[in-house]
Automatic annotation (TrEMBL):
Keywords: Aminotransferase, Cytoplasm, Glutamine amidotransferase, Repeat, Transferase. GO terms for molecular function: carbohydrate derivative binding; glutamine-fructose-6-phosphate transaminase (isomerizing) activity. Residues 42-182, 214-354 form the SIS domain. It comes from Nocardioides ginsengisegetis. This is Glutamine--fructose-6-phosphate aminotransferase [isomerizing]. It catalyses: D-fructose 6-phosphate + L-glutamine = D-glucosamine 6-phosphate + L-glutamate. GO terms for cellular component: cytosol.
Length: 364
């Protein structure tokens, strides 16, 4: 049972620092500034021959796959993208021998993802799995993989498994990068960043009371936007997904840059926006968009870093710790878990078993 916690989701959120430690354990090679992923079953020559990475997953696993694709492109400079596994098979996908396919799944049993893996392997493609449950169907079907070691996850809304998926992608990107052009200095910089993550996640979890208060201001809205750009956009998608899954409020993710091309028409006092505004090369543009929202009296919650100056924008502000830019997305994601959880709690919903949803969907 969930012990001292009111729900498994709460317990599993709190377990994230320990889970993050486990996925890293034994996998960091400090001397060469790289990751040690024996389970991939690929030698350096095969790893270097990869020209493209295609990531497949469903729901939260798909959104973290988008974060993973960004990590791989940035660190390894290999074109990478993520796609919903549920759609992949139906467009007669082109399977190429020099593409690395990556299936992401907590349960390892999601049928849509499993069928995508089988379709790829039937056509001779190489698939690795980022899977939590050892010996699950997807894990068995893959050519190799990275076990996530998050421990059992019970709540439908994925938290610790998702965090470990992100870290798993970071390790994969590091290994792919270090057989290519990522320097040893950059490799070491990322290893140091990964090592800092568990404590930084803990620091966010420690601010639960503050986040609960912010969540209560959002719980009353019928409809919300979650916005972010580039690295922040998959974070917004994951945040909106969590919010709708358990609070049953309509939450839509958008690229901040696209607001002006449509959804700004919907912004009003009744429609809050949760904005991801990390300290990066896009901060000024993101802050500009906040002004557009504020001018239409849209309530704002801004997930940001301490050094970001929001000017005179009226917003509830949540500062998260900074890591290396490439790793920041996971630290921006953790407060969104707490916002969804506390909104749902405030509304009196069943946190672990949201209506109409199952933890693992073994039908098409
Ligand atoms: C969905 C769940 O149906 O399956 C999501 O509601 C989950 O929360 C998704 O992210 C994928 O599950 P898995 O086990 O493949 O990661």
């Amino acid at each position: 049972d969930a012990g001292e916690h009111d729900s498994f989701m709460h317990k599993e959120m709190q377990e994230q620092p320990a889970a993050a430690d486990r996925v890293l354990r034994g996998r960091l090679d400090e001397r060469f500034g790289t990751a040690r992923l024996g389970g991939l079953n690929m030698d350096a020559r095969e790893t270097r021959a990869i020209r493209r990475v295609k990531i497949l997953g469903c729901g939260s696993a798909y959104y973290v796959g988008q974060m993973g694709a960004a990590l791989i492109e940035e660190l390894a400079r290999i074109p990478a993208d993520a796609e919903a596994a549920s759609e992949f098979r139906y467009r007669n996908p082109i399977i190429e021998p020099d593409t690395l396919y990556v299936a992401v799944s907590q349960s390892g049993e999601t049928l849509d993802t499993l069928l995508a893996v089988q379709e790829i392997r039937r056509k001779g493609g190489r698939v690795i799995g980022l899977v939590n449950v050892v010996g699950s169907a997807i894990a068995r079907e893959c050519d190799g993989g990275i076990y996530l070691h998050a421990g059992p996850e019970v709540a439908v809304a994925s938290t610790k498994a998702l965090t470990n998926m992100f870290i798993g992608f970071s390790l994969l990107a590091l290994q792919l990068g270090r057989v290519r052009d990522l320097s040893i200095a950059d490799g070491k910089r990322l290893i140091a960043g990964l090592t800092r993550l568990p404590d930084q996640i803990q620091a966010i979890l420690d601010r639960e009371d503050e986040l609960a208060e912010v969540a209560r201001t959002l719980a009353g809205a019928e409809s919300l936007f979650f916005v972010g750009r580039v690295r922040g956009f998959p974070v917004a998608r994951e945040g909106a997904q969590k919010f709708k899954e358990i609070s049953y409020r309509h939450a839509e993710a958008y690229q901040t840059s696209e607001l002006k091309h449509g959804p700004l028409a919907l912004i009003s006092e009744a429609v809050p926006t949760v904005a991801l505004v990390p300290s990066d090369e896009l901060t000024d543009r993101n802050v500009g968009a906040l002004h557009e929202i504020a001018a239409r009296r849209g309530p704002l919650v801004v997930i940001t870093h301490e050094d970001v100056d929001l000017g005179d924008v009226a917003a509830l502000r949540i500062d998260v710790p900074r890591n290396e830019r490439e790793l920041d997305p996971i630290l921006l994601t953790v407060p969104l878990q707490l916002l969804a959880y506390h909104a749902a709690l405030h509304l009196g919903h069943d946190i672990d078993k949201p209506r109409n949803l199952a933890k693992s969907v073994t039908v098409e």
